[in-house]
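We examine the record.

___
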Amino acid sequence: MKSHHLIFVLFCSLLFVSSQCVAAIKGVLDFVTLQSNGTVRLHGWACDTGVQSSISIHIYFNGAAGTGQLYRAANANLSSETAVSSACNTAGIPHRFTVEMPSADVAIHQGKTVYVHGISVNHPNLLINNSGSFTVPAAPAPIFLAAPANLTAITSGTSVSISWDPIVNGSTYFIKQNLNGVWQAEINKGTARSHSFTVSANNIYGYQVRGCNASSQCSDWSYVLTINTSPAVTYIHTDILGSVIGESNQSGVMLKKTEHKPYGERKEQ
């Protein structure tokens, strides 16, 4: 028997008052399960017998209060069934709890034993049933996901449609747009592998895509697909006599070179 249970029983024995010797806290830790997104869910119910209100719970790891590690407090205030109300001697009071452990906490506490105390109004804060029966499941091993490849763009008037190849083990895709050096909010495309954007003239757009699996593990962002909607500009280069010797674009890439043979004959490259 837990030490705090024993003290309570001895105290009640000295009082010789049976009504005060009832363990007020009741409840059950139903399950501790790993979710597909890498979080862990603790589910159960807890009540203070005969008290017409919901109570708080305290979750500990690797031991009860006094020996274990306090993880967090929560409220047992979710809807509960008639059987729970009967066990708690209450009417219409919610007694269930569901606590989500984020994946970062799962990575820290995986393998630790779970204990849940009900917090009583007037009696000791007792453990609920099944405390110590569950451990925090291990987080899923990371899965390498390659970034989506073969981004392509089809432009039609003021619309550009971006598409990409599927990735192995990917189930959800996200795409984002860069407008003149500023990235916009990413868009969740679900299982779709294309998206259309409205574009306007005289801008530079960039697009990146990433994929994620059912456990919310995601790939890196893909390479940037760039689209320049500015009109093409060609620069003419001349020699000191004013003869054209080359043409380049706005990025400085030479498009054409022209050489002059003796007597002025042109030789283009």
Q: What stands out?
A: The chain is about 10% helix and 40% strand.
